[in-house]
Design a protein that fits this description.
By secondary structure, the chain is an alpha/beta fold. The protein has eleven helices and five strands; from the N terminus they run βααβααβαβααβαααα. The chain has a five-stranded parallel beta sheet, with helices on both faces. Helix 2 packs across helix 10 and helix 5 packs parallel to helix 7.
């Protein structure tokens, strides 16, 4: 039967099943081959994510995910003393939390593909414009996030991935390789536009393919309609039924 691919993260993951979202694109790519499960929690940081681990990834589960993406950091990087300081997590703790998440997933399954994704870059002008659109003259002048500080969290995420020997995507660096990334990839200075979602999708697919999890090489869960014997349809499903009972 189908394997599961879990996308674990904050609002950038939660929103990934919207139209043109990177999660929706993954689900389409793995249609009838693996189920893509969204476990995105808007506003969450790694500190709060730890409380979800045993609920979302119970050690005793008989069916562990084939692959899991871990996409946190955008909220951890909120600046202390600014409007989103309740989400702030210091970098040393952020690294420890990522380590705990990765080690838990490794305990769940030594064969699971684990992919750490860094937070995307931040466009401070875009964040300010968005705040003004919401609060007008009452919007705070000082940004609640900066690209420089977010880059420090991205670097920390990559360091943990290398230390633990898991795959990673440096989204913070990747997006800034494109001129005009601020508006091309981010609609409010933080969250992803359709083009931004496309970057995440392409990078995730690249990592999956390199790990041998290419959708093209995975079998359908049940026969393609062209393979069904219309004279004796039951025979076309016997192998699948036997495999499912193993």
């Amino acid at each position: 039967m189908r394997e599961n691919i879990v996308l674990f993260g904050d609002s950038i993951t939660e929103q990934s099943f919207r139209e043109n979202g990177w999660g929706a694109s993954l689900a389409n790519a793995y249609s009838r081959k693996a189920d893509v499960l969204i476990r995105g929690y808007g506003g969450y940081n790694t500190r709060w994510a730890l409380f979800l681990l045993h609920h979302l990834f119970p050690l005793e589960s008989s069916k562990q995910p084939l692959a899991t993406t871990i996409f946190f950091g955008a909220n951890d990087a909120a600046l202390s003393g600014r409007t989103s300081e309740r989400q702030h997590v210091p970098i040393p703790e952020y690294k420890q939390n990522l380590q705990k998440i990765v080690l838990h997933l490794k305990s769940c399954s030594p064969t699971m593909l684990i992919v750490l994704i860094t937070p995307p870059p931040v466009c401070e002008e875009g964040r300010q414009a968005y705040a003004i659109s919401l609060y007008g003259k009452n919007a705070r002048e000082l940004p609640e996030r900066t690209n420089e500080v977010t880059g420090q969290y991205a670097k920390a995420c990559v360091e943990i991935a290398k230390e633990l020997g898991v795959a990673y995507i440096n989204l913070w660096s990747k997006m800034q390789e494109t001129d005009g990334w601020q508006k091309k990839f981010l609609w409010d200075g933080l969250h992803l536009t359709p083009d931004g979602n496309a970057v995440v999708y392409q990078e995730v697919i690249k990592v999956f393919n390199d790990a041998g999890l290419s959708a093209d090489k995975m079998p359908y869960d049940f026969p393609h309609h062209s393979k069904v014997d219309d004279k004796n349809p039951e025979s076309s499903f016997q192998q699948n039924v036997c495999e499912a009972s193993l």
